[in-house]
Amino acid sequence: MATNRKIISVINTLIFTLIFASRSLTDAIYVTRDISSPLINLKYFFLIFGMLFCALQLIKKKKLIYLKEIKSVYIIIVLFFVISLLMMFINRGSNNKLLEELFKLFLPITYVFLILNTFDFEDIYKSMVLAFAFSMLGYILEIGFSTFSYSNILSVDFSNSYSPFESSAAAGASVAFFTFFMYFRKNKVLKYLSFIFPLFTFKRFSVLFALLLFFLPMVVNMDRMVTKNQKMFLKIMFIILTVVYYLLLMPSSSTLFYKIFNETQRKFTMGRSEFLSWILNGNFTNLGLGSTTKFLGKSLEMDLIKILIETGFLGLIIFVFNYWNCSGQIIYTNTLMGFQFFNLLTSHSLSNSFNWILTFLVIGCITYKQVESEKFLNKVKPKKRKIHIKF
Fold first, then answer.
1. What does the pLDDT read at residue 380?
2. What is the pLDDT of residue 381?
3. H-helix or E-strand spanning residue 12
4. Rounded to an integer, what is the distance from CA 107 to the centroid of its chain?
5. Rounded to whole angstroms, how far apart are CA atoms 306 and 290?
6. pTM exceeding the 0.85 threshold for the entire prediction
7. How far apart are CA 308 and CA 315, in angstroms?
8. Which residues pair with 225 in a beta bridge?
9. Three-class secondary structure of residue 227 per DSSP
10. What pLDDT does residue 16 have?
11. Selection from 300, 245, 247 nearest residue 275 by Cα
12. What is the Cα gyration radius of the chain?
């Protein structure tokens, strides 16, 4: 039995590594260069295979964890499907993007549910180390080895938001790896290397979040529990922020927006306000989830506003409340989810299943794998554990 368990453990780790190796390398070689290739979909093949292999291991599993989280996201999927069908019926149209977008919501939460119920923490840690290595390799291939020069490092300009090392493809994963190795600190090299990674990708929110999470534990106990009232406040806050941001980005609010931010809507949103303007002033028909993507031929690139437009105020409430239910119980995991929600408000990441796999996995490990992780990392018991930074 021990031998069989070890073989299964190796296969689990190998499949996880193949998922993120294929994702990182194909993104670097093909996606970022707008090159079409069937290899781009290889990551989905490995992901589906990995899910099926984990599902087989669940047959004899009696006690399951991560049930609240998977139920929360499945509620979103079902209700978004119903709302979208209703919108298609009312507006008499079809929406070929609906199932694709629902499928991308289904994949990450389901795979993480399967991982947490079939992987030991040691397997997860090893898988994350290998996936991190391939993500770094993919990033280097995307940017180019020759780019990493002393002169290019000196050319980085935060004031003008310029860096030759910037990468949208690697930014999301870099944050997830940083939060994992920052919390589960077995190796100092991995901790500091994972901290440098989001700084190099040079996405504004990623850089700010990495700096915040690196220094915040010096003054705040990040293992402190978050209360139900605090979570409720955060949920309501993001609902209000989404509605206010949407109203401020309307063409009729351009003067008010400039007075508040001292920037034009277009410059502040890096052109995303124009996509919204095309929807508001165009011949847009709401056919539910994915209809703005169908209309524009591309993502609106502001996910919470997209949900508000496509599924209405009710859909926004359903999404924010249920997705925030996956944020864990402590300040650390809720800070990570807060970063993701600010990203959903001002940018787009919801359709990136692979980054959400990493994010959900980090939160899931911290929430459900504390005893296993402490044993593996040779730390003290979870209740006595406090995050601190040693330089």
1. 43
2. 45
3. helix 2-29
4. 12
5. 8
6. yes
7. 7
8. 330
9. coil
10. 97
11. 300
12. 21
Give the SS3 label for residue 299. coil
Report, as an integer, the average pLDDT of 176-202.
Answer: 92
Asked whether the predicted pLDDT for residue 254 surpasses 60, the reply is yes
151-162 pLDDT, tens per residue?
Answer: 888 788 876 778
Backbone φ and ψ of 279, nearest 5°: -70, -45
Tokens, residue 86 = 């209703």
| CA 116/CA 110 separation, integer angstroms | 10
pLDDT in tens, 36-88: 899 999 999 999 999 999 999 998 888 999 999 999 999 999 999 999 999 99
